[in-house]
Amino acid sequence: MTQQWSAPTADGPVDATVPVPGSKSITNRALVLAALADRASTLHAPLRSRDTNLMVAALRSLGVDITDGPDGSWLVTPHELRGPAQVDCGLAGTVMRFLPPAAALAVGEITFDGDPHARTRPMTTILAALRALGADVAGDALPFTLHGKGGVPGGEVTIDASASSQFVSGLLLSGARYESGVTVRHDGKPVPSMPHIEMTVAMLRQAGVVVDDASPNEWRVEPGPIEGRDWHVEPDLSNATPFLAAAAVTGGQVTIPGWPAETTQPGGAARDLFERMGCEVTLTDAGLVLRGPERLTGIDVDLRDESELTPTIAALAALAEGTTRIRGVAHIRGHETDRLAALVTEINRLGGDASETEDGLIIKPRPLHGELWRAYADHRMATAGAIIGLVVDGVSVDDIGCTTKTLPDFPGMWAAALSLPGAR
Ligand SMILES: O=C(O)C1=C[C@@H](OP(=O)(O)O)[C@@H](O)[C@H](O)C1
Ligand SMILES: C=C(OP(=O)(O)O)C(=O)O
């Protein structure tokens, strides 16, 4: 059920410390690796939100034992995977692309479906790759059915991963459990979101898997066991960006505790992006501290590597002085919604000046006015509306509930950051 929400305006500079829950991308990778491992694993500080709860539910339906530990951890005990099972992917790219390669190792029939828009997200490439590696999959998009044979021959496959890095990550995450391992070659326009593939490779190596990524656009995963271990999940740096943006647009100061000095999360690039827009950003013992400027400045930026930050950067751009040009993100037309079309429509509905290019956006300064901001079931569209609503009176977001995709309580966190009455 959608839930309309009047975006609160800030009555002064936002000054807050905002602890951010765990990374969606790390949590859902750790869950898959733990499910395929040779012994039990513990996920410490995992994200508990719709995308990760769907992954847990799907793995449980395949026979994996996942229990709640103290302090919100998850204890994952692997078992042989088996169908029949029905997997609900929701709108989660990480579930629809990471789980089928693992489920192909099961015995039995497994069906996959998801939200209405999930049925339009690109899937053909990874399902064709699974077939080429020896899995039995009927269908080219959600809904589809996988007939698990208890094992996958594996081997070499060439794919065009320009629509999503998750095609590569999905195949690599399960590849060590295929008889011949897996070699994935990319042939096509550049692969987006490369840090997410680096995250996959780094986590596989942490689990003792041998991965060769020395050649560009080629990844080799040797067959062998995946080690069970303790996974410590970093805060979700992309989810931190709306809160950093709250300081950026109000001339305030926001601290995100636990910001890692080094990370494979593409959200790590936020530091540089906010600086380029005029913010002062420092990594301190207390976390990442961002101080907002008097006026933000527009930037010309290629976000191919950190494309999931586009809605936040676009919201900042709509409030900045000077033109912003965002390049390298054609593929986000296949994200939770067509994000290029959605951002242009919603910024312009508020009186702004945004236009679509072949691979991105141009956003020029123009005064905005209050209006309904549509989220299109996209968590990052919803939070982009919240950012603009901080400084533009009368903005409502049509569906704030969709933020539960990756944040269990965005409205509560937002109210607390703004010190609103009744906030936690
Ligand atoms: O592997 C991951 O965890 C992700 C990869 C990226 O997908 P795309 O490569 O489709 O952009 C990113 O945008 C998404 O939010 C999470
Ligand atoms: C693209 C995103 O999600 P997904 O994992 O569903 O692809 C996102 O969170 O911005």
From TrEMBL:
Keyword tags: Amino-acid biosynthesis, Aromatic amino acid biosynthesis, Cytoplasm, Transferase
Name of the top EC class for this enzyme: transferase
GO cellular component: cytoplasm
EC number: 2.5.1.19
Localisation: Cytoplasm
GO terms under biological process: amino acid biosynthetic process; aromatic amino acid family biosynthetic process; chorismate biosynthetic process
SUPFAM superfamilies: EPT/RTPC-like (SSF55205)
Gene name of the record: aroA
A Pfam entry, by short name: EPSP_synthase
Binding site for phosphoenolpyruvate: K24, G93, R121, Q166, R339, R380, K405
Pathway note: Metabolic intermediate biosynthesis; chorismate biosynthesis; chorismate from D-erythrose 4-phosphate and phosphoenolpyruvate: step 6/7
GO MF annotation list: 3-phosphoshikimate 1-carboxyvinyltransferase activity
The UniProt record lists the keyword Glycoprotein: no
Residues that hold 3-phosphoshikimate according to the record: K24, S25, R29, S164, S165, Q166, S193, E308, H335
SUBUNIT field: Monomer.
Record-annotated Enolpyruvate transferase domain positions: 11-412
Domain of life: Bacteria
Family: Belongs to the EPSP synthase family.
HAMAP family: EPSP_synth
Catalytic activity reported: 3-phosphoshikimate + phosphoenolpyruvate = 5-O-(1-carboxyvinyl)-3-phosphoshikimate + phosphate
Annotated PANTHER family: AROM/DEHYDROQUINATE SYNTHASE, PENTAFUNCTIONAL AROM POLYPEPTIDE
Protein's job: Catalyzes the transfer of the enolpyruvyl moiety of phosphoenolpyruvate (PEP) to the 5-hydroxyl of shikimate-3-phosphate (S3P) to produce enolpyruvyl shikimate-3-phosphate and inorganic phosphate.
Active site: E308
Stored InterPro entries: Enolpyruvate_Tfrase_dom (IPR001986), Enolpyruvate_Tfrase_sf (IPR036968), EPSP_synthase (IPR006264), EPSP_synthase_CS (IPR023193), RNA3'P_cycl/enolpyr_Trfase_a/b (IPR013792)
Disordered, as annotated region: 1-21
Name of the protein this chain belongs to: 3-phosphoshikimate 1-carboxyvinyltransferase
